Amino acid sequence: MADYESLQKLAEAVVGDLTAASKAVATAESCTGGWIAKSITDVDGSSAVFGYGVVSYSNGAKESILGVKNETIEEHGAVSETVVEEMAEGALHLSGADIAVAVSGVAGPTGGTEEKPVGTVWFAWAVRDGSSALVDTSCEHFSGDRELVRELTVAHALQGVLERIEV
């Protein structure tokens, strides 16, 4: 279970490790509504490692800002591996950062389906590798109310960034 204190410690570790590695992170968020960016920017000194975050709650924003293809959303849905991959790559491209994290999910209490029940969240982390990006994804199924699903999403996203920083 995530809580404010654990999110704060994770964000502090992310900022500390990014600073030590002279790297930057960007975010592309849907279901978290900017909470990952907020967690990072709550840390003193974060401006040295965070300059860009996109809240792309609507499909239109995913397409127009992050470059997610309409065909990808139509074929796979907004809560999908392919969409978060394109979101992360778009954020990496727009921001010039070294790492980007993207999330899209069903926080609830409504909106779930049999295939994608409430608590389903897709994650993507894109790490700059020369002129291209290495992208990892994962899908988690969190239990709890809307607030808890979002908190757990932020914690998992931050932990994933932390694991991908090469200090």
User: How far apart are the termini?
Assistant: 28 Å
Radius of gyration equals: 15 Å
Q: What's the overall geometry?
A: globular
Mean pLDDT: 96
CATH class: Alpha Beta
Q: What is the CATH homologous superfamily assignment?
A: CinA-like
Largest sheet data: 5 strands, mixed
CATH architecture: Alpha-Beta Complex
| Number of distinct beta strands | 5
Structurally, how many domains make up the residues?
1
Could you spell the SSE succession in H and E letters? HEHEHHHEEEH
In percent, how helical is the residue content?
40-55%
Give me the secondary-structure category: alpha/beta
Q: Quote the CATH topology.
A: Maf protein
Instruction: Classify the beta-strand content into a percent band.
Output: 15-25%
Strand order, main sheet: write it out.
Answer: 2-1-3-4-5
Low-confidence stretches: none
How many helices in DSSP terms?
6
Question: Quick gist of this model?
Answer:
The protein has 167 residues and is an alpha/beta fold. It is 43% helix and 23% strand.
Describe what you observe in this structure.
The protein has helices spanning 4-21, 35-41, 59-64, 70-76, 81-95, 146-164, and strands at residues 25-29, 50-55, 99-105, 120-129, 132-141. The chain has 167 residues and is of the alpha/beta class. It has a single domain (4-164), classed as CinA-like (Maf protein), CATH 3.90.950.20. The protein has a 5-stranded mixed sheet with strand order 2-1-3-4-5, sandwiched between helices. A hairpin with a 2-residue loop joins strand 4 and strand 5. Helix 1 (4-21) packs parallel to helix 6. It starts with a helix and ends with a helix. The model has no long low-confidence stretch (mean pLDDT 96).
